[in-house]
Amino acid sequence: MTPAEMESRIVRYGDLQPCKTAFIDAHTPGSDQKENFTIIGGGVSESPDQHVHISIPHGFNIGAAGQPPKCRNSLHSHRTAEVFFVLKGRWRFFWGRHGDAGEVTLEEGDIFNIPTGIFRGFENIGTDYGMIMAILGGDDAGGGVIWAPQVITDATDHGLVLGENGKLYDSKKGESLPEGMKPMPVLTANELKDFPEPTTAEVVPHYVARYWDMVALADRKPATVIGETGMLRDKPGFEVAFITRGSSSPELHSHDKPSVLMPMRGHWRVSWADDSGTVVGEATLAPGDTMSVPAHLPHSAVPSMTGEASLFHVVATGDPAGLTWKG
Questions:
Q1: pTM above the 0.90 mark?
Q2: How far apart, in whole angstroms, are the C-alpha atoms of residue 157 and residue 145?
Q3: CATH class of the domain whose range is 3-207
Protein backbone atom coordinates (compact mmCIF):
# COMPACT_ATOMS: atom_id res chain seq x y z
CA MET A 1 0.00 0.00 0.00
CA THR A 2 1.49 3.34 -1.05
CA PRO A 3 1.93 6.29 1.33
CA ALA A 4 -0.80 8.15 -0.57
CA GLU A 5 -3.21 5.25 -0.15
CA MET A 6 -2.46 5.04 3.56
CA GLU A 7 -2.80 8.80 4.01
CA SER A 8 -6.39 8.44 2.77
CA ARG A 9 -6.97 6.19 5.78
CA ILE A 10 -5.68 8.78 8.26
CA VAL A 11 -7.99 11.43 9.67
CA ARG A 12 -5.97 14.26 11.17
CA TYR A 13 -7.33 16.03 14.23
CA GLY A 14 -7.04 19.38 12.49
CA ASP A 15 -9.01 18.09 9.47
CA LEU A 16 -12.04 16.83 11.41
CA GLN A 17 -15.29 18.18 9.95
CA PRO A 18 -17.94 18.85 12.59
CA CYS A 19 -21.70 18.67 12.31
CA LYS A 20 -23.60 21.05 14.61
CA THR A 21 -27.03 19.64 13.77
CA ALA A 22 -26.32 15.93 14.21
CA PHE A 23 -28.97 15.13 16.80
CA ILE A 24 -32.43 16.09 17.96
CA ASP A 25 -31.15 18.32 20.79
CA ALA A 26 -29.10 20.52 18.41
CA HIS A 27 -31.30 23.57 19.10
CA THR A 28 -32.06 22.85 22.76
CA PRO A 29 -30.42 25.44 25.05
CA GLY A 30 -27.47 23.90 26.87
CA SER A 31 -26.83 21.42 24.07
CA ASP A 32 -26.86 23.73 21.06
CA GLN A 33 -23.10 24.29 20.86
CA LYS A 34 -21.93 20.70 20.61
CA GLU A 35 -20.14 19.32 17.56
CA ASN A 36 -20.36 15.74 16.33
CA PHE A 37 -17.69 14.00 14.27
CA THR A 38 -18.08 10.76 12.32
CA ILE A 39 -14.59 9.46 11.63
CA ILE A 40 -15.00 5.80 10.63
CA GLY A 41 -18.33 4.24 9.65
CA GLY A 42 -21.76 5.79 9.36
CA GLY A 43 -22.13 6.53 13.07
CA VAL A 44 -25.50 7.39 14.59
CA SER A 45 -26.01 10.94 13.35
CA GLU A 46 -29.62 11.84 12.52
CA SER A 47 -28.64 14.62 10.13
CA PRO A 48 -27.89 14.50 6.39
CA ASP A 49 -25.31 17.22 7.04
CA GLN A 50 -23.00 14.79 8.87
CA HIS A 51 -19.67 14.29 7.08
CA VAL A 52 -18.26 10.74 7.17
CA HIS A 53 -14.47 10.74 6.85
CA ILE A 54 -13.91 7.00 6.21
CA SER A 55 -16.84 4.82 5.21
CA ILE A 56 -14.98 1.48 5.05
CA PRO A 57 -16.69 -1.09 7.34
CA HIS A 58 -14.55 -2.09 10.31
CA GLY A 59 -17.04 -3.97 12.50
CA PHE A 60 -17.27 -0.87 14.68
CA ASN A 61 -17.57 2.91 14.31
CA ILE A 62 -15.20 5.66 15.43
CA GLY A 63 -16.53 9.13 16.22
CA ALA A 64 -15.97 12.09 18.50
CA ALA A 65 -17.83 14.82 20.34
CA GLY A 66 -16.48 18.33 20.85
CA GLN A 67 -18.12 20.72 23.28
CA PRO A 68 -17.34 24.05 24.94
CA PRO A 69 -17.54 24.36 28.73
CA LYS A 70 -20.98 23.75 30.30
CA CYS A 71 -22.35 22.21 27.09
CA ARG A 72 -24.03 18.83 27.56
CA ASN A 73 -25.15 15.91 25.45
CA SER A 74 -28.72 14.88 26.26
CA LEU A 75 -29.81 11.56 27.78
CA HIS A 76 -29.92 8.73 25.27
CA SER A 77 -29.29 5.00 25.00
CA HIS A 78 -27.70 2.57 22.55
CA ARG A 79 -28.25 -1.09 21.67
CA THR A 80 -24.51 -1.73 21.19
CA ALA A 81 -21.33 -0.59 22.92
CA GLU A 82 -20.54 3.09 23.40
CA VAL A 83 -16.97 3.63 24.60
CA PHE A 84 -15.45 7.05 25.23
CA PHE A 85 -11.95 8.18 26.10
CA VAL A 86 -11.20 11.77 27.00
CA LEU A 87 -8.77 13.37 24.58
CA LYS A 88 -9.07 16.92 25.88
CA GLY A 89 -10.68 18.44 28.93
CA ARG A 90 -12.63 17.25 31.96
CA TRP A 91 -15.99 15.57 31.54
CA ARG A 92 -18.89 14.48 33.72
CA PHE A 93 -20.85 11.43 32.59
CA PHE A 94 -24.26 10.81 34.14
CA TRP A 95 -26.97 8.20 33.63
CA GLY A 96 -30.48 7.09 34.44
CA ARG A 97 -33.94 8.06 33.21
CA HIS A 98 -33.46 11.60 34.52
CA GLY A 99 -29.66 11.54 34.70
CA ASP A 100 -29.55 11.20 38.46
CA ALA A 101 -28.94 7.46 38.99
CA GLY A 102 -25.15 7.84 38.97
CA GLU A 103 -22.24 9.85 37.63
CA VAL A 104 -18.48 9.83 37.18
CA THR A 105 -15.89 12.46 36.26
CA LEU A 106 -13.30 11.53 33.64
CA GLU A 107 -9.94 13.22 33.13
CA GLU A 108 -7.76 13.14 30.03
CA GLY A 109 -6.91 9.59 29.00
CA ASP A 110 -9.61 7.92 31.11
CA ILE A 111 -11.92 5.50 29.28
CA PHE A 112 -15.57 4.56 29.93
CA ASN A 113 -17.26 1.47 28.47
CA ILE A 114 -20.84 2.59 29.10
CA PRO A 115 -23.22 -0.33 29.68
CA THR A 116 -25.79 -0.81 26.94
CA GLY A 117 -29.44 -0.19 27.72
CA ILE A 118 -29.06 2.71 30.17
CA PHE A 119 -29.79 6.35 29.45
CA ARG A 120 -26.55 8.32 29.52
CA GLY A 121 -25.41 11.87 28.91
CA PHE A 122 -22.22 13.86 29.33
CA GLU A 123 -21.03 17.43 29.73
CA ASN A 124 -17.78 19.33 29.49
CA ILE A 125 -17.00 20.58 33.00
CA GLY A 126 -13.56 21.88 32.06
CA THR A 127 -12.50 25.43 31.29
CA ASP A 128 -11.82 25.07 27.55
CA TYR A 129 -13.17 23.29 24.48
CA GLY A 130 -13.11 19.57 25.18
CA MET A 131 -13.01 16.49 22.96
CA ILE A 132 -13.99 12.89 23.65
CA MET A 133 -13.30 10.09 21.19
CA ALA A 134 -15.93 7.37 20.75
CA ILE A 135 -16.05 3.71 19.68
CA LEU A 136 -19.49 2.36 18.80
CA GLY A 137 -20.21 -1.34 18.40
CA GLY A 138 -21.29 -2.76 15.04
CA ASP A 139 -21.09 -1.38 11.52
CA ASP A 140 -24.56 0.14 11.88
CA ALA A 141 -23.92 1.18 15.52
CA GLY A 142 -27.06 -0.54 16.74
CA GLY A 143 -29.37 1.20 14.32
CA GLY A 144 -29.37 4.61 15.97
CA VAL A 145 -30.10 6.46 19.19
CA ILE A 146 -32.89 5.93 21.71
CA TRP A 147 -33.77 9.24 23.37
CA ALA A 148 -35.20 9.81 26.83
CA PRO A 149 -38.78 11.11 26.37
CA GLN A 150 -38.08 14.60 27.70
CA VAL A 151 -35.32 15.12 25.11
CA ILE A 152 -37.77 14.62 22.23
CA THR A 153 -40.36 16.86 23.90
CA ASP A 154 -37.84 19.65 24.56
CA ALA A 155 -36.51 19.47 21.01
CA THR A 156 -39.97 19.92 19.51
CA ASP A 157 -40.26 23.21 21.40
CA HIS A 158 -37.11 24.40 19.59
CA GLY A 159 -38.01 23.41 16.04
CA LEU A 160 -36.59 19.90 15.59
CA VAL A 161 -38.71 16.82 14.95
CA LEU A 162 -37.37 13.29 14.63
CA GLY A 163 -39.21 11.14 12.11
CA GLU A 164 -39.92 7.48 12.69
CA ASN A 165 -37.29 6.89 9.97
CA GLY A 166 -34.62 8.22 12.36
CA LYS A 167 -34.07 11.43 10.37
CA LEU A 168 -34.30 15.01 11.64
CA TYR A 169 -36.59 17.69 10.22
CA ASP A 170 -35.87 21.31 11.12
CA SER A 171 -38.74 23.79 11.03
CA LYS A 172 -36.17 26.62 11.22
CA LYS A 173 -35.15 25.56 7.71
CA GLY A 174 -38.75 25.26 6.55
CA GLU A 175 -38.71 21.49 6.82
CA SER A 176 -41.59 19.33 8.02
CA LEU A 177 -42.32 15.62 8.23
CA PRO A 178 -42.98 14.15 4.78
CA GLU A 179 -46.54 13.20 4.01
CA GLY A 180 -47.39 9.92 5.69
CA MET A 181 -44.34 10.11 7.97
CA LYS A 182 -45.03 9.90 11.70
CA PRO A 183 -42.77 11.38 14.38
CA MET A 184 -40.57 9.04 16.36
CA PRO A 185 -42.79 7.71 19.16
CA VAL A 186 -41.88 8.63 22.72
CA LEU A 187 -41.15 5.64 24.95
CA THR A 188 -44.08 4.61 27.10
CA ALA A 189 -43.96 4.22 30.88
CA ASN A 190 -44.02 0.46 30.42
CA GLU A 191 -41.13 0.54 27.92
CA LEU A 192 -39.08 2.73 30.24
CA LYS A 193 -39.10 -0.05 32.84
CA ASP A 194 -36.64 -1.95 30.62
CA PHE A 195 -33.93 0.72 31.10
CA PRO A 196 -31.84 -0.02 34.23
CA GLU A 197 -30.85 2.61 36.80
CA PRO A 198 -27.48 1.36 38.14
CA THR A 199 -25.71 3.30 40.85
CA THR A 200 -22.25 4.87 40.62
CA ALA A 201 -20.86 2.08 42.80
CA GLU A 202 -22.29 -0.55 40.43
CA VAL A 203 -20.92 1.08 37.27
CA VAL A 204 -17.55 2.73 37.90
CA PRO A 205 -15.47 -0.26 39.12
CA HIS A 206 -16.46 -2.43 36.15
CA TYR A 207 -16.73 0.07 33.31
CA VAL A 208 -14.18 2.86 33.93
CA ALA A 209 -10.40 2.57 33.52
CA ARG A 210 -8.17 5.43 34.65
CA TYR A 211 -5.32 6.67 32.48
CA TRP A 212 -2.51 6.19 34.96
CA ASP A 213 -3.70 2.68 35.85
CA MET A 214 -3.49 1.81 32.15
CA VAL A 215 -0.04 3.40 31.91
CA ALA A 216 1.18 1.26 34.81
CA LEU A 217 -0.29 -1.92 33.37
CA ALA A 218 1.14 -1.26 29.90
CA ASP A 219 4.66 -0.54 31.13
CA ARG A 220 6.20 -3.63 29.49
CA LYS A 221 3.51 -5.09 27.24
CA PRO A 222 0.30 -3.75 25.70
CA ALA A 223 -2.63 -3.82 28.11
CA THR A 224 -6.01 -5.13 27.03
CA VAL A 225 -8.43 -2.50 28.32
CA ILE A 226 -11.70 -3.82 26.87
CA GLY A 227 -11.99 -7.48 25.96
CA GLU A 228 -12.91 -10.89 27.27
CA THR A 229 -9.89 -10.84 29.61
CA GLY A 230 -9.41 -7.07 29.74
CA MET A 231 -9.38 -4.56 32.57
CA LEU A 232 -13.01 -3.95 31.60
CA ARG A 233 -14.38 -7.38 30.69
CA ASP A 234 -16.69 -7.20 27.70
CA LYS A 235 -17.14 -8.64 24.19
CA PRO A 236 -18.63 -5.73 22.21
CA GLY A 237 -17.37 -6.88 18.79
CA PHE A 238 -13.99 -5.22 19.24
CA GLU A 239 -11.06 -5.10 21.65
CA VAL A 240 -9.31 -2.00 22.92
CA ALA A 241 -5.64 -2.19 23.87
CA PHE A 242 -3.42 0.49 25.40
CA ILE A 243 0.22 0.90 24.40
CA THR A 244 2.96 3.05 25.93
CA ARG A 245 6.57 3.70 25.02
CA GLY A 246 7.64 0.76 27.17
CA SER A 247 5.23 -1.68 25.54
CA SER A 248 5.61 -0.51 21.94
CA SER A 249 7.63 -2.58 19.50
CA PRO A 250 9.17 -1.99 16.06
CA GLU A 251 8.32 -5.60 15.14
CA LEU A 252 5.84 -5.85 12.29
CA HIS A 253 2.53 -7.56 12.96
CA SER A 254 -0.91 -7.77 11.34
CA HIS A 255 -4.53 -8.56 12.18
CA ASP A 256 -7.09 -10.58 10.26
CA LYS A 257 -9.58 -7.74 10.63
CA PRO A 258 -9.22 -3.95 10.25
CA SER A 259 -7.70 -2.10 13.20
CA VAL A 260 -7.48 1.52 14.29
CA LEU A 261 -4.68 3.49 15.96
CA MET A 262 -5.63 6.52 18.10
CA PRO A 263 -2.75 8.32 19.86
CA MET A 264 -3.49 9.81 23.28
CA ARG A 265 -0.11 11.31 24.09
CA GLY A 266 3.02 11.93 22.03
CA HIS A 267 3.82 11.40 18.37
CA TRP A 268 3.86 7.89 16.90
CA ARG A 269 5.65 6.64 13.80
CA VAL A 270 3.65 3.97 12.00
CA SER A 271 5.49 1.82 9.45
CA TRP A 272 3.97 -0.72 7.10
CA ALA A 273 5.39 -3.36 4.80
CA ASP A 274 4.56 -5.37 1.70
CA ASP A 275 3.99 -9.13 1.72
CA SER A 276 7.73 -9.77 1.72
CA GLY A 277 8.18 -7.79 4.95
CA THR A 278 9.91 -4.85 3.28
CA VAL A 279 8.87 -1.53 4.80
CA VAL A 280 7.23 0.53 2.04
CA GLY A 281 5.88 3.52 3.93
CA GLU A 282 5.75 5.53 7.14
CA ALA A 283 3.43 8.10 8.68
CA THR A 284 3.48 10.08 11.91
CA LEU A 285 0.39 10.34 14.08
CA ALA A 286 -0.33 12.97 16.75
CA PRO A 287 -2.92 13.01 19.55
CA GLY A 288 -6.42 13.22 18.08
CA ASP A 289 -5.41 11.60 14.79
CA THR A 290 -7.14 8.37 13.75
CA MET A 291 -5.55 5.79 11.46
CA SER A 292 -7.35 2.85 9.85
CA VAL A 293 -5.03 -0.10 9.19
CA PRO A 294 -6.25 -2.64 6.62
CA ALA A 295 -6.61 -6.28 7.60
CA HIS A 296 -3.50 -8.43 7.00
CA LEU A 297 -1.21 -5.41 6.50
CA PRO A 298 2.13 -5.83 8.37
CA HIS A 299 2.71 -2.70 10.45
CA SER A 300 4.29 -1.35 13.63
CA ALA A 301 3.88 1.75 15.79
CA VAL A 302 6.55 3.32 18.00
CA PRO A 303 6.96 6.77 19.58
CA SER A 304 8.86 9.11 17.29
CA MET A 305 9.87 11.69 19.92
CA THR A 306 10.94 11.65 23.54
CA GLY A 307 8.46 12.28 26.33
CA GLU A 308 5.18 10.72 27.37
CA ALA A 309 3.62 8.49 24.71
CA SER A 310 0.41 6.45 24.78
CA LEU A 311 -1.91 5.07 22.16
CA PHE A 312 -5.29 3.30 22.01
CA HIS A 313 -5.51 0.39 19.59
CA VAL A 314 -8.91 -0.95 18.46
CA VAL A 315 -9.40 -4.16 16.50
CA ALA A 316 -12.56 -6.01 15.49
CA THR A 317 -13.03 -9.48 17.00
CA GLY A 318 -15.95 -10.88 15.03
CA ASP A 319 -18.08 -11.18 18.17
CA PRO A 320 -21.63 -9.95 17.55
CA ALA A 321 -22.27 -6.34 18.56
CA GLY A 322 -25.03 -6.16 21.12
CA LEU A 323 -25.74 -5.98 24.81
CA THR A 324 -22.92 -5.68 27.33
CA TRP A 325 -21.40 -9.12 27.95
CA LYS A 326 -22.19 -10.57 31.37
CA GLY A 327 -19.66 -13.41 31.30
A1: yes
A2: 20
A3: mainly beta
